[in-house]
Amino acid sequence: MIPQHLKSWLSALLLLVGVTLTGAPALAGPGVTPARIVAIGDLHGDFDAWRAIARAAKLIDDAGRWTGQKTVLVQTGDIVDRGPDSLKIIRDLMRLEREAARAGGRVIVLVGNHEAMMVTDDLRYVHPGEFAAFVDRQSARRRDQVFAANRLAIEAAYRRQDATLTAPAIRDRWLARTKLGQLEYEAAWAPTGELGRWIIGKPAIVRLGSTLFVHGGLSPAYAAVPLDDINRRVKAALLARETAVESIINDPAGPLWYRGLAGLPVEGAPAPAVPLLPIAEQLDIVLKAAAAQRIVIGHTPLLRGVQVSEGGRLVRIDSGISRAYSGVPGYVEILGERVFTHNVPRPPGTAAGGKP
Predict the structure, then answer these.
(1) CATH fold of 36-119+194-343, please?
(2) CA–CA gap between residue 98 and residue 138 (Å, rounded)
(3) Model-level pTM greater than 0.85?
(4) Of 3, 142, 169, 260, which has the highest C-beta tally within 10 A?
(5) Above pLDDT 70, what percent of the chain?
(6) DSSP class per residue in 58-121
């Protein structure tokens, strides 16, 4: 990981050596109620599962081109981490944003907690394959340049932990910790980078007709906050790379992290703990405040498949799609006011279990 005070220097270096940092345009507001909505949950770097679901939902053809016509696709965040192929999924979604718009459809990607972690440089769950996707012919030279330009600061940081370390030992440790492609990856997810700018342009919560979509959930603590204000606050927090637990992008009761609608307690909240209301009572509060009939959430894995519960008011779509979880790939289809769940066969390959 690069010390925060070196980020601006690294971005300047990457621009100097020709790494393009561009962003995709932000999407417009929710508009009229779509005739067909497809919602897909946490993908966590599993490109094959993503493509299998998108084909099953008739969103794409075998070449990956948009065939969904006027369908609205909502991907509820957590594209990244745990699996190796997040960049391939993001490239697909960037292209499909354009193709769907030309066909009269739409692709809406929401901010998940793992996207926020990337922007704020929290790389705890990054799969090595994610860094490898950013390696090019200049990666080794860039890594050497970053070390040489910041050698004194790096050596001082290491020696604060172990004063006996020699300069060669520090260099070896830093190189071992800083994988090839990692510097490019971190720069791409910075607010000025390609992926950072792309995700910062996305909403955290959106209402389409009578359905509310959010990554983690809308807690009673945020129910009175207008949706536009939630999105503005999330964008501002991402731009500022906020790491405090009080920030909306880190708050366990906030829209990216809340698990209360899955029946799990709010842990680590900055405010004094409040007893968790029954899910039905939470839904009474948040749906009334948002003028919605149902809420669709991801974030908390339900490995037996996507689920509609609470009289149709709660739709959970994190079904452990990624091989990291070995769950049941699936999606939700909303036609008017009717909600349908669909399971999709996992593409061939060896599954590897993981933890929520």
Answers:
(1) Purple Acid Phosphatase; chain A, domain 2 (3.60.21)
(2) 31
(3) yes
(4) 260
(5) 87
(6) TSB-TTS-B--TT-EEEE-S--SSSSS-HHHHHHHHHHHHHHHHHHT-EEEEPPPHHHHHHHTT
